[in-house]
Specification:
By secondary structure, the protein is α+β, with helices and mostly antiparallel strands. The chain contains 21 helices and 23 strands. The chain folds into 3 domains: 302 residues, DD-peptidase/beta-lactamase superfamily (Beta-lactamase, 3-Layer(aba) Sandwich), CATH 3.40.710.10; 142 residues, 2-Layer Sandwich (Transcription Regulator spoIIAA); 141 residues, Jelly Rolls (Sandwich).
Length: 617
């Protein structure tokens, strides 16, 4: 995901990378490496960042496509190939896994055995190169290049000019090779192993390549962009272990303390960092500190780790997929009973309402999946509902992503609603701290999805049915059960009705009482409430003017099964069962039409319920 021209619809993840790139671009500490002459030609201002999630989303900013040589960033990947070729035991006999606290080019060998301390220093990397299988140096390098290309997801090539520069100045590395041969760590010609090491370091990559390569390790060896296996999953833990303890040389301890991700740097300015199961990060900036690590690269990883809580040792349980279910307002409606015209409008335009039911533990990586899905549908979403009912934990990095998302949607005139947010007080506190007086405007929270859906539907209907009246008094001719009535039939039917007002909050019907009337709502709204096993009340439906309730009394005359409460001051016309029975004898054609319309209404409600159940299945 590269930088879009319109930042309004860019991802909050990309926004932060852009801000980080801008803030650090002026950092000019450090020097470009010169001990390999060809590296000194790098542009010291070059700066790229690439973050790739374990599910393959790529975010990149700055000089992410500028080529440079991989250098020591190749070491963990070649070590992984050595493990695949030989197995853990034989590799451990030749290369240790203990941190040295020394510089990258230190000659750090075990006393007596001559075994290099770890594969991240030059001595260990040369020993690992000597363990790569294949006939002759050409075939062995071909295997290394093919392996690195699998990680990057594209064919890579060697930079010949850098290789020649490495070869012409690499006398210390040749000396290391001969020492390794002296201890039988290298069993063949040491010059061939050193030459392979020079070639692997001279492979040309981009910052984007490094991000994808890091994400491949985060994804247990499977390239998340191409889906191809670059290393057997059983060896990924070994590669990440030595990266964590030794990847940043004599800065490794402080790096793990502060940043907390397995990492590897290279003297051309590349850095990779890996958070297993979540993200891979690649940074390119050729200005190096005294230890040979990219100055900006370290700052980027440190900022990202703190901003999004990426420290390896501060993890929640992984949980299941974050998005449990998603649907639109065209597929599932609120409990507010709508007119036929309104239902048609919602089926046509309700797709702009999107509901996400989330679950599990919300961290940076799990929340990024949600945010990315929303941003990919940015133009189709006008109103967003985020259901947190099944979210077990939510940390500050998730809050930060949600805050960015809500602000971005708000800038585009779109609304966001949170439901069940009271389960996670950190979210409200975070929004209040960030938004201040605007918190109530942008942080819209409802107890459940139903109320949030109704609010979204009302906005859609006000846009697509601008002339719709919601506060007028309805006449009998407008009742949904009086469709098809002739004027004289309306007059006869109206004479059987009795008017009755109810104040807001009054229970018009109560559970268990005898069913004696059919109610027609002429003004205001009422809700159907049923008790739940937990002791709380749940809204089943809300009716508005022109609709009827208590209609089951006409069918089975059983005691009431729900409570009907006035949501506002309302007026009703009611038909008693005694008058209905009298009407059935004196004007049976009216009763037939009434029951026909009732059957049609119940059938429509059943179809709607079936459709919504299929969405929730």
């Amino acid at each position: 995901m590269t930088e879009p021209s319109d930042s309004t619809c860019s991802s909050p993840v990309l926004d932060l990378l852009r801000q980080l790139h801008e803030s650090l671009a002026s950092l000019d500490d450090g020097e470009v490496a010169t001990y390999i002459p060809e590296l000194s030609k790098a542009d010291p201002s070059a700066f790229g960042i690439c973050l790739v999630t374990a599910n393959g989303t790529v975010y990149e900013v700055g000089d992410s496509a500028v080529p440079f040589t991989i250098q020591s960033v190749s070491k963990p990947f070649v070590y992984g190939l050595a493990l695949e070729d030989n197995g853990r035991g034989p590799v451990l006999e030749k290369v240790g896994v203990e941190p040295t606290g020394d510089a990258f080019n230190s000659i750090s060998l075990e006393v007596g055995t001559g075994r290099p301390r770890n594969p991240m220093i030059n001595a260990g990397a040369i020993a690992a190169a000597g363990l790569i299988g294949g006939k002759g140096r050409v075939n062995r390098f071909k295997r290394v290049l093919e392996m690195l290309s699998l990680y990057a997801g594209r064919p890579l090539a060697m930079d010949s000019s850098v290789y020649r520069s490495e070869d012409e100045t690499g006398h210390r590395n040749r000396a290391i090779g001969h020492m390794l041969r002296n201890y039988s760590i290298l069993e063949g010609d040491p010059i061939e192993a050193v030459d392979l090491y020079f070639r692997q370091c001279s492979v040309s990559v981009t910052c984007r390549d490094l991000g994808i390569m890091a994400a491949t390790l985060a994804n247990r060896g499977v390239n998340p962009v191409t889906g191809r296996q670059a290393i057997r999953g059983e060896y990924v833990e070994n590669v990440l272990s030595v990266m964590g303890s030794c990847g940043m040389y004599d800065y490794a301890g402080e790096w793990m303390y502060k940043v907390g991700m397995p990492a590897k740097s290279g003297v051309a300015g590349g850095v990779i960092a890996v958070l297993p199961g979540q993200v891979g990060i690649g940074v390119y900036s050729p200005r190096l500190d005294a230890r040979g690590n990219s100055v900006r690269g370290i700052r980027v990883c440190d900022e990202l780790s703190r901003h999004w809580d990426l420290h390896l040792l501060n993890r929640q349980a992984a949980g299941r997929s974050t998005i449990r279910r998603q649907f639109t307002g065209a597929e599932l409606n609120s409990s507010r009973v709508r007119t036929a015209e309104e239902l048609v409008a919602l089926r046509t335009s309700g797709g702009s309402i999107r509901v996400f039911q989330l679950q599990g533990h919300l961290t940076f990586a799990t929340t990024e999946v949600v945010v990315n899905e929303i941003m990919e549908n940015f133009t189709r979403i006008e109103q967003l509902v985020l259901d947190l009912r099944r979210v077990q934990t939510l940390n500050e990095s998730a809050c930060r992503l949600f805050w960015h998302l809500v602000c971005k949607l708000g800038e585009a005139g779109k609304q966001t609603f949170f439901t069940h947010a009271d389960r996670h007080p950190l979210l409200r506190r975070y929004f209040k701290a960030k938004l201040g007086r605007r918190c109530e405007e942008l942080f819209r929270a409802y107890e459940d999805n139903d109320l949030a859906l109704e609010a979204c539907e009302n906005r859609v209907l006000s846009d697509v049915l601008p002339g719709r009246r919601t506060d007028h008094r309805v006449r009998a001719a407008e009742f949904e059960l009086c469709q098809g009535f002739e004027p004289e039939e309306i007059e006869t039917f109206s004479a059987c009705l009795v008017s009755r007002p109810f104040e807001c909050g009054v229970s018009i019907i109560s559970v268990g009482e005898r069913a004696a009337e059919l109610y027609f709502l002429t003004r205001g709204t009422v809700s159907v409430i049923v008790p739940t096993q937990s002791g709380t009340a749940r809204r089943l439906a809300t009716f508005s003017a022109g609709m009827c309730f208590g209609e089951m009394a006409m069918i089975d005359r059983a005691p009431r099964s729900a409570t009907i409460v006035a949501d506002s001051d309302v007026e009703c016309e009611f038909l008693s069962l005694e008058r209905f029975d009298h009407l059935r004898k004196t004007a049976p054609e009216i009763c037939i039409k009434l029951l026909t319309n009732l059957s049609r209404s119940l059938s429509q409600k059943l179809r709607k319920a079936n459709r919504e159940l299929s969405v929730l299945d």
